[in-house]
From TrEMBL:
Keyword Protease included in the entry's annotation: no
The family this protein is said to belong to: Belongs to the ABC transporter superfamily.
Primary localization class, coarse: membrane
Subcellular location: Cell inner membrane
Keywords, alphabetical: ATP-binding, Cell membrane, Membrane, Nucleotide-binding, Transport
InterPro entries in UniProt: AAA+_ATPase, ABC_Ni/Peptide_Import, ABC_transporter-like_ATP-bd, ABC_transporter-like_CS, Oligopep_ABC_C, P-loop_NTPase
Name under which the protein is recorded: ABC-type dipeptide transporter
Cross-referenced SUPFAM superfamilies: P-loop containing nucleoside triphosphate hydrolases
NCBIfam families, sorted: oligo_HPY
Taxonomic lineage: Bacteria, Pseudomonadati, Pseudomonadota, Gammaproteobacteria, Oceanospirillales
Matching PANTHER family: DIPEPTIDE TRANSPORT ATP-BINDING PROTEIN DPPD, OLIGOPEPTIDE TRANSPORT ATP-BINDING PROTEIN APPD
Keyword Zinc belongs to the record: no
Protein species of origin: Marinomonas ostreistagni
ABC transporter domain mapped to chain residues: 6-254
Signal sequence coordinates: none
Amino acid sequence: MSLLSVNGLSVKFRQRHQDLVALHDVSFSLDRGERIAIVGESGAGKSVLGYALVNLLMKPGFIDAGSVQFDGRELTKLSPKQWQGIRGKKIAMIFQDPMVTLNPVLTIGAQMIEAIRSHTRIAYKDARKLAIEKLAHVRISAPSQRFDQYPHELSGGMRQRVIIAIALLLNPEIIIADEPTTALDVTIQAEILQLLKQICADNGVALILITHDFGVVSRIAERTFVMYAGRIVEQGPTLEIINDPQHPYTQGLLNALPQMALPGQRLNQIKGNMPPLNDQPSGCAFHPRCPYAEERCRQNPPGFVYSGVSTVACYVVEDMLSEFSQHDGDDSYE
């Protein structure tokens, strides 16, 4: 049984005249110790998915339909009190900006102690020892000294390590990392990613990495889910998706990477923008930006088809696979 199983998850934001759909029928699973990535542009629904998994959707957002099961336990039906035993303890979340996550008027140690004692009955001395051990675990130098410092006294990379240490305090089984390296320079970014990967491997922790950067994904995730306008449009092993992307949107994301352009050449980009929630296209949401769009793409959303070891929601890919299958079974073709 999967550690986390998400089936048909839909999220809406209640408005006066209509409910806006932010997630459409999202389904995926996560095994123990597995590392997956959710990839897409801003507005694709990645962070909404992360918040929905740990019941942190702010009103007017709400889960409209679907199931989220953790170790066989349905999470969408839990009361706020029941969530206290899950969020932070079993499923931890790392947010994008540590300066927003950390309280600027409390020391690092005070915030770590608060996180520990909100879930367990433990003496201050033991909680302090645990906090310093976790700071050392994420390779923070002089952890006893950092324990008594304030967030503004630490560098950006150091603050992000503190956030990871806080996430590890109660030995969670899943970490959800929402753009954990966006605010960091490239060198520090690589260090944080390697740290996350190593911690998950050493402790058997599963990871859901939310990001827009395929360069980040290639370093850490075993499987990747590509999202567009609140839907998963492609999913499969990370290396397979990077080396042989099937969906036109996935191809566009990879072609937009800086290394795909020659020196002095303009960077590639996907024409158009992510559609807003109040103006979602009919059919396949990507069709206004897709160079291969057909009339049927404008009518109905495509279902998933298997393409090798990946699954893709695209009519064009479906046609190519169908044509290949017919030729493969036609003796005259040989």
